[in-house]
Amino acid sequence: RLDLSIDGEEIVDVDVVVGQVHRGIEWLGMNRNNPIQNIYIAERVCSICNICHPFAYVMAVEQAAGITPPERADYIRVITAEMERIHSHLLWAGVAAHEIGFDSVFYLVWRVREDIMDLIEYVTGNRVTKAMFQIGGVRRDITEEQFPKIRQSLDYYKSIFDQLERLFLDDRTIRMRTRNVGILKKEDALKLLTCGPTGRASGVPKDVRQDQPYGGYADLDIKAITPDMLTGTVVGDVYDRIIVRLLEVAQSIEIIEQCLEKMPPGPILAQPKTAVLLKTLTQAEGEGIGRAEAPRGEVVHYVRLEAGRETLSTWKIRAPTYVNLMSIPTILKGGQIADVPIAFASIDPCLSCTNRAIVVDSKTKNTSLLSYRELHELSVEKTKRLEAEFDS
């Protein structure tokens, strides 16, 4: 929930009430499931980020148990992670268009997104939870016979990228609704430890794939995307967050192409026999940290193994929204209430029950409740008003 104190249309103070939704994922990992079963629980931390969470988790367990995955598995992990980034950023772009009233753009972008979803299903066997990861490698190979289909999808996105860029970056109304809206300056982004596209859009060139390469990323050319690469300047607003995500879609395409060109031969699992792997994990003792660059920012999984114990001794998960929410007061203060939907959506939040806002009038202290629908209508009304003013 967002508690907003307003003066007329201006937001003067913000309190983010995260709420409490307990699914017991970490508890299951420490009390009910063995480390292998936890992979599929980690996938369900987030339905969109269901590659980066198991990615970080298996790396943490591998570090704790002293297991090194084969090089080919590292490349397959990168390919699936970058396919996830493409679909996540396109999903976000559609939602962003919807928040300012451009539902035709929303439908168009989600139609474009279907191609990567079909490719994900083709490579992994499923559109959502993919069950690709195993401790010590991956469960499915990507064969030479699949390369043409993957390249065909990448070529499709390269062919329409200019259209997407014009659609989001050149449209006058989108610029009016996103430029100088929801500004997060670089110094504030650093102070608040903002990560992912939200931080990079403020000029903070931090990306785990670049700073501490993991898996196959160490062999690839990765550079953190910031908006000045396209515009020459950094404002740190919603428009800059659009730029970063669009450029990262293009970057993900290049990364997958590099993986296809450099894919080494060999096995995909350090230990193909699950029973042997589980025995190894039961006897292992140690702790590990897995860090992965999710579409929203850095994901961290910490685990501890104790010899003789079938479950994890400790499992702690930190998702990027947890830290990015701290930037919301700075992003919203001084803005208009009609900008709340797009400004809040610009960090790509992933949490339950963020569908309402309470508004407190700073003079009368009267409290009112705005549903998501009412906030969205205010945002659309502002879009129409700006278009009318421009045309007149």
Brief characterization of the structure:
With 392 residues, the protein is of the alpha+beta class. It is 51% helix and 13% strand.
Please explain how this structure is put together.
The chain has helices spanning 25-31, 37-42, 52-65, 71-99, 103-124, 147-170, 172-178, 186-191, 196-200, 208-211, 228-231, 238-262, 274-283, 320-324, 328-332, 340-345, 372-391, and strands spanning 2-7, 10-16, 133-134, 137-138, 286-294, 297-305, 314-318, 356-361, 367-371. It is 51% helix and 13% strand. Helix 4 runs antiparallel to helix 12 (238-262) and helix 5 runs antiparallel to helix 6. Mean pLDDT is 92; it is low at 352-356. The radius of gyration is 22 Å and the shape is globular. Strand 5 (286-294) and strand 6 form a beta hairpin. The protein has 17 helices and nine strands. The strands form three sheets. It has a four-stranded mixed sheet. Strands 5-6-7 form a three-stranded antiparallel sheet. The protein has a two-stranded antiparallel ribbon with strand order 3-4. The chain is of the alpha+beta class.
Would you spell out the secondary-structure blueprint of this structure?
Layout lengths: L1 E6 L2 E7 L8 H7 L5 H6 L9 H14 L5 H29 L3 H22 L8 E2 L2 E2 L8 H24 L1 H7 L7 H6 L4 H5 L7 H4 L16 H4 L6 H25 L11 H10 L2 E9 L2 E9 L8 E5 L1 H5 L3 H5 L7 H6 L10 E6 L5 E5 H20 L1
Parallel strand pairs: 1-8
Antiparallel strand pairs: 1-2, 3-4, 5-6, 6-7, 8-9
Proportion in β-strands: 5-15%
Question: How would you write the strand order of the largest sheet?
Answer: 2-1-8-9
Q: Helix proportion of residues, in percent?
A: 40-55%
Described by the principal axes of the CA atoms, the overall outline is globular
Count the beta strands. Answer: 9
Over all CA atoms, what is the radius of gyration?
22 Å
The major sheet is characterized as:
4 strands, mixed
Average the pLDDT over all residues and give the rounded result.
Answer: 92
Instruction: Spell out the helices and strands N to C.
Output: EEHHHHHEEHHHHHHHHEEEHHHEEH
Low-confidence stretches: 352-356
Helical region count? Answer: 17
Q: Kindly, what is the distance between the CA atoms of the first and last residues, rounded to a whole number of angstroms?
A: 38 Å
Q: What kind of oligomer do you see?
A: single chain
Helix/strand class? alpha+beta
